[in-house]
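Recap for those who missed Tuesday's class. We walked through two folding examples back to back. For each one, the amino acid string is listed first and its predicted structure tokens come directly after. Nothing is annotated here on purpose, so try labeling regions yourself before you check the end of the notes.
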Amino acid sequence: MMRKLLAVLTITLSACAANPFTEFYRGTSDARKLPSYVSVPGDVKIYSTDNFERDVQELTRKSYSVVGRSSFSAASNNATDSQLREQARKIGAQIVLVRPGYTRTSYGALPLSSPRANATPGSKDLLMPSAMPSSDLAAAFLVKLFPRVGLSPGALDDATRRRLKRNGGILVLEVVEGSPAFNADVRPGDVLLALELERIQFVDQYLRLLNQYQGTTVTFTFDRNGTLMEKQIPIRPYPSAAR
């Protein structure tokens, strides 16, 4: 009887200790294994947000990318600050954005510049979408990634395809501050048409070409509101110092 009671007690305690941020986590299991992962000194930084899209966009400019997210009902799951930090450390996240429904801890305002509301971040580096489910408790986990070029690529919308009269191409969604693309005056809204005269069709192709030409300076061909531009942009290899 005592053994059965101890077994029940162990199961109950384990259930109480379950980490909902881990249980409901979807994303990269260990961001430290990414070739572009950059170590950042200090503990995990947690900020409240009332607009994931806006704040992820701002962090994208600073070379941070979403690698995972957790979303669940706060009423049904007893979550704590230590559990949130535990999950962040487990996957190597350096910043966590938390919807204000998470009220057990007060966090400061995100110390970023004023956002532009109309851009939507997203890229192969931005591994998870910034849009969050409607659950009352949601968290986005971000890591700093080394920007080889520094433009955040996305698919063309239908209006841009009609204007360009082509299906292929990559929309520049955001540009990392201080990156090669930033220094070359690439802007959000530009459309990448070709790299070294090879027509760009999809994001995966673009990433393959970055690997092919890394360590060299190549010609990027952009469309900016109907004007073609060629820019010489270096593709930086992953430095060992970034690991």
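Example two. Treat it independently of the first, because the proteins are unrelated.
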Amino acid sequence: MDNTREVGRKLEEAVLLKVKEIDPNARLTRGSGQGNEYSDISSSFSYIECKLRNTKDFTIKEDVWKHLNFNLPINTNKFCFMVHQNVNKVRLVTLDMDTFFEILKKSKENEW
């Protein structure tokens, strides 16, 4: 396994650990992006794609974002997000704006 694959796998495993704090049944998908599973991680509430960048800058490819979101099953309550890691190991999340504000709204209603 080359270093990029190893670092990418470590990113997926780190994200999975965080998701498992919320959903213990979350799992890495088999074949990531192949066949019926098109994200790196699947949970009861989301599909997650992890992207490793070998630069300081973050790039979000619209076609990857569309592929992730347009392949959601019909009538699902799940949402998609992406986790990006750059060369400095800074990690950021990409999330649809409406979904982000819906999460904030639900969080405020339940906890704030």
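Answers for example two:
The domain at 3-111 is CATH 3.40.1350 (Trna Endonuclease; Chain: A, domain 1).
The CA atoms of residues 15 and 21 lie 10 Å apart.
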